[in-house]
Each structure stands twice: as structure tokens, then as C-alpha cells.
Amino acid sequence: MTEMLNIALPKGRLGVKVYGMFAQAGYECPEVLEESRKLFFENADKGVRYFWVKPSDVTVYVERGACDIGVAGRDIILENEPEVYELCDLRTGVCRMSVSALKDFKDDPTRTLKVATKFPNIATKYYSGFGRDVDIIKLNGSIEIAPIVGLSDVIVDIVETGNTLRENNMHEIRLVENLSARLIANKANYEFRRTQIEKLRNALESVIA
Ligand code: PRP
């Protein structure tokens, strides 16, 4: 009998959408969607075991081989830079990483720019790309508050609808990267279980198409 595939799904709205794609691809496990505090589910007939993982931790589970495959936002992949294979773009969870500021912000390129973000690695790389002197301030959420209270000049953060920015009197000033959810695989496990993983990837790709 083939071994079960361990799959890390990002807990939350994106994960529910992504699970829907796996189910449509023939890897359903209806218990996943039941309201409960349970975090793992399996469908032995389909050979899959799903785990609800904090979105920013999916790359950790997959990189270390605790899960064979997983779904992570491109933002998390760029921030954590895990040693994993990126197998396909699931074309969901589409959003962008942008630099945003208050509407009346005027940049002075001779000054160090204070940047608040949940993504210090992405922000550091972005600004070092054009040699700008920055002071990166790592926050864990509600980043839009930082410029309002003078903690930072700008923020590097995810924008989806733009509503959060609008409602806080801010706007995007630069695009850093377009983002979406990606299917990732542990490198060693992928080699061992290529047939199983490729079958799943192909089924997902026909759902996307
Ligand atoms: C994310 C992001 C923005 C917001 C963007 O925050 O950090 O604040 O969503 O979405 P929008 O453009 O559709 O308004 P999230 O809701 O994950 O909460 P957080 O502030 O706690 O990170």
C-alpha cells in the first residue's frame, strides 16, 4: 500500500479555498470543513492526511519533511526562503506586496527611511536593491497604524482589495511583488514519492485550468 501524503494547509480563509481545490481534484476529506478544534484529518482511501497549519509555518513543516507538500503564499516563501520545490501557482489568494504611505507623505531620499512590516526579509532585500538606507521595524499585524502614529514613514505589506489602506488614509506608492498561493514540496520526499505528488499536482492543475 502507498504511504499517506501529509499535506500542510494554511489555516484560515485561503486554506478553506485551497482545500476546495484539493477536493475538486479528487482528494476530498469532508471532515476538514467541520467546525471543530481538530487540526488534522485523513482520508485513507484517497491516501491524504491534511493538517491546518498557521500560514507562516507551512514552509517550516514542508522544508523539514514533516509534511510532504503544502500550500504557502508567495509572500511567506519570499520571506522564509525555504529549501523546497515550488510545484505550481494555484492562482488563488492573489494579492500584492506593496510599499504604502499616508497620502501626504513626501519622501526625502537623503534621510533613512523608517519601514514597518511583517516581512523584514522582503523589505530589506527590496530596499537594498536600490541602495536605500532603511530602518526596518518588525511588527506582527495592523501595520497600517505605524505611519499614523509616526512609528514609520512607510509600510511594506500585503494589499488585496486596498480597503484597509483607503480606510486609513493611505495609498500604495510602489509595487514590490505580485503574490498568490503556491503548491510546495519537500525536496527529498518529492524524489521518493514523485509519482504520487505529480498525480496530485496534475489533478490540481486541471482544476485551475
Ligand atoms: C492583511 C494585510 C493588510 C490587509 C490587506 O492583514 O496586512 O492589513 O490584509 O487587505 P485589503 O487590501 O483587502 O484591505 P490581515 O487581515 O491579515 O491582518 P493583520 O493586520 O493582523 O496582519
Provide structural commentary.
- There is one protein chain.
- The chain has helices at 13-24, 58-63, 74-80, 120-128, 145-148, 163-167, 187-192, 194-208; strands at residues 5-10, 40-43, 48-53, 69-73, 84-89, 95-102, 113-117, 134-138, 154-159, 170-179, 181-186.
- The chain has a six-stranded mixed beta sheet. A five-stranded mixed beta sheet has the order 8-7-9-6-10.
- Strand 2 and strand 3 (48-53) form a beta hairpin.
- The mean pLDDT is 96.
- Helix content is 31%, strand content 32%.
- It binds 1-O-pyrophosphono-5-O-phosphono-alpha-D-ribofuranose.
- Residues 141-144, 157-164 line the site of 1-O-pyrophosphono-5-O-phosphono-alpha-D-ribofuranose.
Question: Keyphrases for this structure?
Answer:
2 domains; 8 helices; 209 residues; 11 strands; five-stranded mixed beta sheet; alpha/beta; six-stranded mixed beta sheet; D-Maltodextrin-Binding Protein, domain 2; elongated; binds 1-O-pyrophosphono-5-O-phosphono-alpha-D-ribofuranose; single chain
The strand count comes to: 11
Reading off the top of the CATH hierarchy, the class of the largest domain is best stated as Alpha Beta
Structural category? alpha/beta
Euclidean distance between termini CA atoms:
31 Å
Task: Sketch the major β-sheet.
Answer: 6 strands, mixed
Q: Brief description of this entry?
A:
The chain is of the alpha/beta class and 209 residues long. Helices cover 31% and strands 32% of the residues. 35% of the residues are buried.
